Amino acid sequence: MDARQAALTAGIDDATIDSGTKRTRRTVIWGSAIGYATDGFDLLILGFMLRPISADLGLTQPQAASLVTATLFGAVLGGFGFGFLSDRLGRVRVLVWTIVLFAVFTGLCALAHGYWDLLIYRTIAGLGLGGEF
Question: Residue 57, exposed/middle/buried by CB under 10 A (0-12, 13-18, 19+)?
């Protein structure tokens, strides 16, 4: 017996099932849109804040540029790696992992004391970013 037959047997009509499905779909779409916007904001704000970050941490221009490159490189690896995992383990589960990974390591960027800390945090945050995409 599938889920629809079980719901009909329990006295739940098609309108209730369709209403719940539409609400769930809307919630998923809004959640995905907000996540996508947050990812875009992260990449955009890095470009604007690169000069003050470089001044604060004493970074050279090549070091500052490598932060952006590391983020994008991590995003490519995350896209492939988490895409593979999502096919095996489920898209929702892996999406949750990537959001947590992105959020934690983006937050850790604020606590970086030097170039290497920040480079590692941005690369790992990029993995999560690519997984979300």
Answer: middle
CB neighbours of residue 108 within 10 Å: 16
How far is CA 120 from its chain centroid? 17
pLDDT attached to residue 68: 92
Going 62 to 68 to 70 to 76, the CA torsion angle's sign is negative
pLDDT at 65: 92
The answer to pTM > 0.85 is no
* Cα dist from 11 to 4, 5, 45, 133, whole Å: 11, 10, 52, 40
pLDDT by residue (tens digit) across 102-126? Answer: 999 999 999 999 999 999 999 999 9
Distance CA 133, CA 123 (A): 15
CA distance 28 to 47: 29
